[in-house]
Specification:
120 residues, mainly alpha, two-stranded antiparallel sheet, 50% helix, elongated
Length: 120
Amino acid sequence: MVDNKTVIGQVQEFQLILHEIEAKSMILPETFQVATIVEKLSHAWRDFKNYLKHKCKELKLEDFIVRLRIEEDNRKSEKRSNKNAYKAKANVIEDSKGKASTSKGFKRKKTALGYKGKDQ
């Protein structure tokens, strides 16, 4: 499978191929169909693929597609939330009196390895 298309879209294309095979009186077991899709998942889906491989219960094709759709939706929402996570943030350090500290009273001295801070 390729990363530039949705996984569900690719699974639907695979289902069309399966219907063509069934139209020619050839039957593929449902577990084989699910295993084929799992094996064709891209490298980005490695964790989900391993989860499915180690699952004890066999999945029907419909259940598998539902899980794929849920996983794909979760990945899309994660990408959206990660884009918002990089907004500018500022950290303020307060001293024991509750006042924000400043750089007053702090000298920086240049050394061979970089700057070294030292209190006055």
